[in-house]
Design goal:
The chain has 12 helices and no strands. The chain is mostly helical and about 200 residues long. It folds into 2 domains: about 150 residues, no CATH class; about 50 residues. The radius of gyration is 18 Å and the shape is globular. The mean pLDDT is about 85.
């Protein structure tokens, strides 16, 4: 709903807002696109920024190989359309519990898809009824959800170093680099540290 509200503020119609959510279905990218939305539309900057942010899905998709690697190509790649951060997080938790059903990923993703598109339409249509969403903390909902999702991955003190490196790298590079490169580089730094720790323990 927050996305729909912000999209309406940027001048998108309810139909355009619904279509962006239905066709793109990538919350972080859609919010970033709104931040860059202007007249004339900076297509190059918009595409580069969104592509940078979505590179993380390559790494996320690789972790799904134990499930999707056994499926026909069409079904495997079709499932990846529904691989949002939230659906991936839930699927990884299910996989770590020993789950073997690859339908969990598109199932979780489709549930989120219905609510995401529906919420976008509602926000676009009725968001104007809330004159100041920041006053009620509505704009913090997105951050709160990611924090709740992240907490489910905490396995103990062993995670502290790679998580700390990822956060510190992203914060250090945020002001130094243009666009959203700091997000990707922070994630890569944390992943590399985690991989090194895993190899040494093995």
């Amino acid at each position: 709903m927050l996305y729909g509200y912000l999209a309406a503020e940027r001048g998108l119609s309810v139909a355009e807002t619904g279509l962006t959510s239905a066709l793109v279905f990538a919350g972080a990218s859609q919010f970033l696109a709104l931040q860059l939305w202007s007249d004339p539309l900076p297509v190059g900057a918009l595409v580069a920024t969104v592509t940078t942010v979505n590179v993380r899905h390559v790494l996320m998709g690789a972790t799904m190989k134990p499930w999707l690697g056994r499926l026909p190509v069409g079904r495997a790649y079709g499932s990846l359309f529904f691989m949002t951060d939230e659906a991936w997080g839930l699927s990884m938790a299910e996989m770590n519990r020993g789950g073997r059903d690859a339908a969990f990923l598109p199932g979780a993703g489709f549930c989120l898809y219905v609510f995401w598109v529906g919420g976008s339409l509602l926000g676009g249509a009725f968001g104007g009824l809330v004159p100041d969403p920041e006053r009620y903390g509505i704009t913090f909902v997105f951050t709160a959800f990611f924090l709740a999702l992240l907490s489910g991955f905490w396995r103990g003190r062993a995670d502290l170093l790679p998580w700390g490196i990822a956060g510190a790298t992203a914060l250090a590079l945020e002001k130094a680099l243009p666009g959203t490169w700091y997000i990707l580089l922070g994630a890569l730094a944390g992943s590399l540290v985690g991989a090194v720790i895993h190899v040494r323990r093995s």
